[in-house]
TrEMBL record:
It comes from the Bacteria. The keyword Acyltransferase does not apply. The lineage of its organism: Bacteria, Bacillati, Actinomycetota, Actinomycetes, Pseudonocardiales. GO terms for biological process: 'de novo' pyrimidine nucleobase biosynthetic process; response to toxic substance. Its cofactor is FMN. Belongs to the nitronate monooxygenase family. NMO class I subfamily. One of its GO terms (molecular function) is oxidoreductase activity, acting on the CH-CH group of donors. This is Propionate 3-nitronate monooxygenase. InterPro entries: Aldolase_TIM, Dihydroorotate_DH_CS, NMO. It catalyses: 3 propionate 3-nitronate + 3 O2 + H2O = 3 3-oxopropanoate + 2 nitrate + nitrite + H2O2 + 3 H(+). It comes from Saccharopolyspora gloriosae. Gene3D superfamilies: Aldolase class I. Keywords: Detoxification, Flavoprotein, FMN, Monooxygenase, Oxidoreductase.
Length: 350
């Protein structure tokens, strides 16, 4: 299904209100493929978004779910005080810092009942029994991986495709088990390297993700053997995305670098470097989703105030090249650029 669209361009799921039904429908309407992001949503809200996509388009679409980690009552130590001071600064109270499973099982039941055509999972390997149930309901199942070891685990769970996330990627790293001894949560493979080593490890179709902002990048991952290219940051600035104005302004000025941090959520993620990341990142424990809940009021208050210094400004390494366009136009431009890039590459042999 996903690999038989007229365009190989996939708009990545982007949780936190960015992947709107309008974005998903616009990408699907242009021949690409769009994902709703179920992360952080209650199941009623997700059901509403699924309904809305179906009102807007008859094209297939996907839903992305966060696989929960093991229940843990972690001591967040000094980090609570750090965030409490930030909360005071922004005139709010810090969040509770609790563990939860993001209502995973309820959302699995919902996508099964709704017969969502494609279901992708990140942050862990789904149980084989869950994959079996999703597939029995007609869904194509995708798991995001960052290393050959994760790819083997996902293949053993019998998923249909893998989304291979390179280190360039914006937003959370998809690592299954966050290795607290590593700043990035695990070994960092760039996208081309990841596609190479993972294609050597498993025999599954691969989608490439991480740092893809132009059609030439789409051509590069297809040349490397991927069946499609998944772009997050590129669609973050599209007209239909629910991106906060302060983040759009940061993308337009493009003065910041990116880094991987646990500062905002307790799980490694790539975003624009700002004050909160610089001051707290080195002290942040590997505690997802506890830190996500703890920092949420601070991030919300900063966003409402239009202050980029305490927002999580997720962005891939190539964000400065992202062009604000209506999403359908972006899909068409990427398609044309990709074909031109492939022609230009081929011409080097003539
Ligand atoms: C703002 C933002 C939110 C994201 N949210 C999700 C998500 O909810 N689920 C998911 O699987 N990936 C998420 N990602 C990661 C993307 O799926 C993808 O791996 C990444 O965007 C690729 O790198 P790029 O941003 O350089 O294109 C997010 C990325 C960004 C930038």
């Amino acid at each position: 299904m996903i690999e038989r669209r007229t365009s190989p361009v996939i708009a990545a799921p982007m949780a936190g209100g960015i992947s709107t039904p309008e974005l998903v429908a616009a990408v699907g309407g242009a021949g690409g493929f769009g994902f709703l992001a179920a992360g952080y949503l209650a199941e009623e809200a997700l059901a509403g978004q699924i309904r809305r996509v179906r009102e807007l388009t008859g094209e297939p679409f996907g839903v992305n779910l966060f696989v929960p980690g093991p229940r843990a009552d972690l001591d967040l130590g000094d980090y609570r005080e750090r965030v409490a001071a930030e909360a005071e600064r922004y005139g709010v109270r810090a969040g509770s810092g609790h563990w939860d499973d993001d209502l995973y099982q309820a959302k699995v039941e919902l996508v099964i009942a709704e017969r969502v055509p494609v279901v992708s999972l990140t942050f862990g390997c789904p149980e084989k029994s869950t994959v079996d149930r999703l597939r029995a309901a007609g869904a194509q199942v995708i798991c995001t991986v960052t290393t050959p070891a994760e790819a083997r685990r996902a293949a053993a769970a019998r998923v249909d495709l893998l989304c291979v996330q390179g280190a360039e990627a914006g937003g959370h790293r998809a690592v299954f088990d966050d290795d607290a001894d590593s700043a990035a949560g695990g070994e960092l493979f760039g996208l081309l390297g990841a596609l190479r080593v993972i294609s050597g490890a498993v025999d599954l179709p691969l989608i490439g993700a991480g740092g893809i902002v132009s059609g030439a990048d789409v051509a590069a991952v297809l040349s490397a053997g991927a069946v499609a290219a998944q772009l997050g940051t590129a669609f973050l600035v599209s007209d239909e995305a629910g991106t906060a104005p302060a983040q759009r302004a940061e993308f337009a000025s493009a003065t910041r670098g990116t880094a991987i941090t646990r500062a905002f959520s307790g799980r490694p993620a790539r975003g624009l470097v700002n004050r909160f990341m610089a001051e707290h990142g080195p002290h942040a424990p590997a505690a997802y989703p506890q830190l996500h809940h703890l920092t949420k009021p601070v991030r919300g208050a900063a966003s409402s105030a239009g202050d980029p210094e305490a927002m999580s400004l997720w962005a891939g390494q190539t964000y400065a090249q992202a062009t604000p366009l209506p999403a359908a136009e972006l899909v068409r431009a990427l398609d044309e650029q990709a074909k031109n890039a492939l022609d230009a590459a081929r011409a080097r042999w003539s």
